[in-house]
Amino acid sequence: MERKNSLLPHLLTFLSLHLLLLLFSPIAAAKLTNPLGLARSSFPSVHAKQLIRAFNLFPEEDINIIDGPDSSTAAVADAPRLVEKPFRLPNLIESGVSVEDLGHHAGYFNIEHSHAAKMFYLFFESRTNKKDPVVIWLTGGPGCSSELAVFYENGPFTIANNLSLVWNEYGWDKASNLLYVDQPIGTGFSYSSDKRDIRHSEDGVSNDLYDFLQAFFAEHPELAKNDFFITGESYAGHYIPAFAARVHKGNKAKEGIHINLKGFAIGNGLTDPAVQYKAYTDFALDNGLITATEYNRINKVLPVCEMAIKLCGTDGTVSCMASYFVCNTIFSSIMAKAGNINYYDIRKKCEGSLCYDFSNMEKFLNQKPVRESLGVGDIEFVSCSSTVYQAMLVDWMRNLEVGIPTLLEDGIQLLVYAGEYDLICNWLGRSLGNSRWVHAMEWSGQKQFVTSPEVPFVVDNSEAGVLKNHGPLSFLKVHDAGHMVPMDQPKAALEMLRRWTRGSIAESAASALAFSLKTSLNNSPLLFIPSISSNPLLPPKISTLSSSSSSENYRSHQLKLLKSTPRASSEREGVPGELIEDSKFVPLNADEMIFGPPALLLLGFEVEEAEKIQQFLKQLDGEFLKVIYCTEDMITRSLWDAMNTSQPNLEALKIAKPLPRICFFSGLSGEEMMVFIDSFPESGLEPAIFAALVPNSADKPLAELIEEIVGDHEMLTAKEKENA
């Protein structure tokens, strides 16, 4: 309580300051003093217009609210028949793809529970397969049209300087049936004749989107059974969780058409402001935008910001508008020191007020042939609306993370991805090395996610990002990208979508490691436990074991190994001493007790090989060994957990692919493992890598151990080349 009271004067000063800014003229407000010496956040209308001008956008109208329900404009008169039409945009440069065959549609659907709202959309059938998932994209703002993404990020086309359209090689319609919606109402070509349809909260936004989906799938029943995913960026970090929860709620209540929701993805989003606003100064300091002194000074407002957000809660009230002003002082203070950087991509400068030039989109969409093709009549195109922006201010500081755990527990996937050079919705979680709110989110898999390894996300044999995954939750930091990942890294973004919607993004770790292994080995087999010279005293079978398969007999058996220090042993066998010192390498004949349950864990092996494997074990009198196949959920689990897995039904297993072929031994002596290794080439099985469960590896995730194996091998092969 004492701490809260000590913060209260600061909070009251900030709130009174910013509320006065709302109530009095700028001249009067200018006479007020700022107790912490921080830059003030600007008026909402000014801030919104600055954001819009940063894109070089100049919409002729601020919002599509057509005055009066009795308006006689052509658009309103035609509203009942503005439903949907196939379209072909003019000036499309031919590339051998027939637009007519692709099923491009545009139009309006009436929003059932609104007063008079009509929502505009563009739909692009998959260029690959009509059974591909349906993916909806929502642009943020709040108040910016999704056509920004159509022409500058992940749509089928890009706009050339002469206003012709060029096919986008990495459009997301290559992996999905792609749907763009202008929302909230008043944005883009969406419109209403009733001002009551302007939305102020996620409840209103998500209900409108749900009504839209019901109308869309009623018009396209052939798509209703396809998997459905929600995607978007920036302020869509608010829209998306609420929309996903609304769809899930509708499905559970059996409202209307069942929507086959499988997952939702947030790109560089604002989702949990209380957590994310604290990352601003860390990100700015780490990237040299502010000094340590400035960092400490700006951070003095963080406790005040946190208290303001707590007053806001999750309901969206007037106190939420006050918290917007208080907390955005943090961002404004950073920008005052950082200069004319592009806060969407700190590698770039903003030339004048422009950070990007998206003006060709407005020019293109305002052409009469284009408007006729889209069937929008006289409706103005509002690229970004400062009115919608201001209407959503009471929603800005709400925490939308609170509804996500329920979705995860019900098996709905969440992908959070972020370009590493974005400031305004940055990726950072300094203490955790990843997004703070994702790590802080409380759900049944939180501990496993937090402890899961970071692994390379590999596209075309290059690391395109860093991935963390556990169960339905994935986080991807994308290299060399800012706020708009599909624009900055289109190939990586398309591959991300493809893998994620097909349930294989978790396999990216395995793919990356397999790539590293193949590159380092040039496709040759690797022995993590080095292949030493054959010992003529070793029997041709694992004969130190009882022929009985009793695990009790096995556990009571211990084989005394040759007494020697690890270094002496390794030198005699040609293993470099520095390999043992600098890595996790354990010599095969080190003086170790038998460790772990009697088992073989097979990575990269197919279940179809089970018969050959059992036959091989029978020849070695090793049938007592439990054989375990690495499945998709195992790659982030510890080696010990994997070794103790029960797999009664091999046919039902989902084998992790692709993985390097690795055989992990458990519960065998050094001599016994060597018998297996020396005999393996005669088994008829493809070459494999061999490694052993030892105490210092038991608690490590499989993905991390594979990296260590690769590292050890590279050290060993480099030493061998020196000695050759």
TrEMBL record:
GO terms for cellular component: extracellular region
GO biological process, one term: proteolysis
Coiled-coil intervals: none
Keyword Disulfide bond: yes
The keyword rRNA-binding is assigned to this record: no
Family: Belongs to the peptidase S10 family.
PANTHER family: OS10G0545100 PROTEIN (PTHR35732)
Name listed for the protein in its UniProt record: Uncharacterized protein
